[in-house]
Amino acid sequence: MTHMLLYIDQISEGYVILITGLLIVFGALLTLSLFFKFGLPVMLYIYKVITKRKDKKIKDIKVEADEAFTGEIAAAISVAIHMYLNEQHDNENAILTIKQARKLYSPWSSKIYGTHNKL
Amino acid sequence: MKKILLIFGVLSLLIFIRPALGLNTNTTNNNSLNTTEQVNTSEGDNVYEGAFKGIKQFYNYTGFANATSGNLIMIFIGIIFIYLGIKFDYEPLLLIPIGAGVIIGNIPFVAGNQTGIYETGSVLNYLYFGVVKGVYPPLIFLGIGAMTDFSSLIANPKLMLLGAAAQIGVFATFLGALYLGFNLPEAGAIGIIGGADGPTAIFLSSKLANGLNVLADGTTVKNLIGPIAIAAYSYMALVPVIQPPLMRLLISKEDRKIKMKPPRAVSQKEKMIFPIVALILTTFISPSALPLLGMLFFGNLLKESGRTERLADTARTKLIDIVTILLGVTVGASTQADIFITKDSMLIFGLGAISFVIATCGGLLFAKFMNLFLKGDNKINPLIGAAGVSAVPDSARVVHTEGLKSDPSNYLLMHAMAPNVSGVIGSAIAAGIILSFLG
Lengths: 119, 439
Known about the structure:
The structure holds 2 protein chains of 2 kinds.
Chain A: H1 2-51, H2 71-86, H3 111-116
Chain B: H1 2-32, H2 34-61, H3 63-66, H4 69-87, H5 92-105, H6 123-132, H7 136-147, H8 151-155, H9 160-165, H10 168-179, H11 184-191, H12 198-208, H13 225-237, H14 239-250, H15 253-256, H16 268-285, H17 290-304, H18 309-333, H19 337-340, H20 343-371, H21 394-406, H22 413-438
Helix pairs in contact in B: 4-5, 5-13, 5-18, 6-18, 7-12, 7-17, 7-18, 10-11, 10-20, 11-12, 11-22, 12-13, 12-22, 13-20, 14-20, 14-21, 16-17, 17-18, 21-22
């Protein structure tokens, strides 16, 4: 009997945790997203007011960076730089490897050759 | 040449002399007393018997004598983990250490020699301390924070809600575990598998289901750290298998082709403000998640401040590598067969799979639901909802490849990273809530 009671109690507590937990998680991330949607521009504005120019309105600095400059452009530029720096060796001069040897004739044990060509 | 001959000569002389000396001693013994010889022979018998006994004892200490079917099954599972990691590239950084750990933990041994991971004083036990006390997960989070770029999230804050929607998997599994007869703390620890976040799962299970806490009715909670961690990590590795069918089932072909507008560029100031504000806001709401969220945002601040590049670099390379090695091996080794192969572990594996499915569906459906309120090019591609289960960055990658399949020019990776990282924050908050309710 007591076991049964405990069991039901656990399930109902489980539902309480389910609902409150979900609400809190949603609430927390909603506050975060609202803050970054609305709070952050205000903060940046206040920062600007404190540092210098006072005549600007919130609307003017809502998006600080250039609107046309998206992440895609940044990605393209960085890929280009990366390729330039890392893939350079693909265009190396192939002639390097087939350069003519300095000595045309070199019988390594020839005594005569050794007396004529001093190292 | 002479020297070699000399050395060889001396050596051979020594070898010849030795039996002669031994013979001498024997003869003197014989001369002195007959009884001693008798004793000697019986001792010789004893020597053979002793040697045989020694070998027998040695055999009793080997793995061959102590192996149980459970050990062999777990070693086989360890080999499968390693195979999956190498062959299919499913999170090899996790599966290979864990697989090796599973093999290490299931080599049969005689208890009592401070060998096993559950014997106090053994080396593995000391390393396992970091898992049991929840030391490793915050360190992993520090590294994740120093790796993660939150800019796509800052550019499009509404995507944070997708990370929250996927946490429905956590709470649904929690309820499922309760119905299956687990008690509250155990169910909480099992539920967090749905957060798809290995470190968080280990952190929460080490606090709730560690085999030490005593409940109100006098029973001790079971030690479920091993099964939960293995379930969480193996399903994380299986994200590329679990998620795509659900995506195709729930999202229509037209919806899959939605192109999202590229996120705006985010200024450095915003990136610096983000970790500080998010740290304060989230930990005020859920203080129990402080070790995880505190380290996550601290790591991100190291990265974004622009002045501590050295610290950030260590956190995201060396430090996280070291901790991952220790965590992987000890979590793997904690699956010692006599403790791991139980009915509970099987139930946990089943619940884990369901929780991943529910979490993915939650994210996908909530993304569709959000689309009802969004217009024009603000619409989001519902596929990115699936990235709301954390599993950074695997689920984002799965979303990306799935998006490419329906439209080869639709790059979703950047957008999918936003719900993905917010899923990490969301699951840490959920862990904090469960901990504050049940801890």
